Amino acid sequence: xxxxxxxxxxxxxxxxxxxxxxxxxxxxxxxxxxxxxxxxxxxxxxxxxxxxxxxxxxxxxxxxxxxxxxxxxxxxxxxxxxxxxxxxxxxxxxxxxxxxxxxxxxxxxxxxxxxxxxxxxxxxxxxxxxxxxxxxxxxxxxxxxxxxxxxxxxxxxxxxxxxxxxxxxxxxxxxxxxxxxxxxxxxxxxxxxxxxxxxxxxxxxxxxxxxxxxxxxxxxxxxxxxxxxxxxxxxxxxxxx
Length: 241
Hints:
By secondary structure, the chain is of the alpha+beta class. It has helices spanning 3-20, 29-32, 43-57, 92-103, 165-168; strands at 34-37, 65-67, 73-77, 109-117, 130-131, 140-145, 156-158, 179-180, 190-192, 199-203, 208-210, 218-226, 237-238. Strands 1, 2, 3, 4, 6, 10, 12 and 13 form an eight-stranded antiparallel beta sheet that branches. A three-stranded antiparallel beta sheet has the order 9-7-11, with no helix packed on it. The protein is globular and about 50 Å long.
């Protein structure tokens, strides 16, 4: 895809979201890039979810586990299938409605991803370094921290306003590119630390990463969504399942 086509595609995606979206509980994302809601989950629920993550990861035959090459980032896809009634604490329907109102497109499919990140030499952090989830479209992630997250144990980092045209169209972060080796020296990322149970909501068209972890561990659960009910590429689970 050439530069003109990329530019046009991005403009169309932005125009759709600006005209039909930007509303609802997450409407402030249009200006703030990310929102944090403390106390979304109780510490007791967080501790129970951590136990469930460890239980699943201990099963080497589990079919929905992914690990990076270093063993620093271990993920459980479709985690809602492993936790029974604990799913109710995430208020999934409420989150899907809020995401759809912000995007201007109803959400048709979703799944939960749980992950544990631990220190390994040369680890790139959760997500494998600086990236956008989509180089063109706005997308929203809800990320629940299950343990206290400080600067040393892999907090979420993002480049403010990089989901908006002012930065998303800069030559340093080219349209159509989703991976970046580093940020420009003058670009200062925001680091999102928080207590167990905090909910981070972010428009992940922005440039972001999980900071490379130095000590301890970071446990989190993330909701992935799609407007496409048959989106097998993203391994989502239909809303009605």
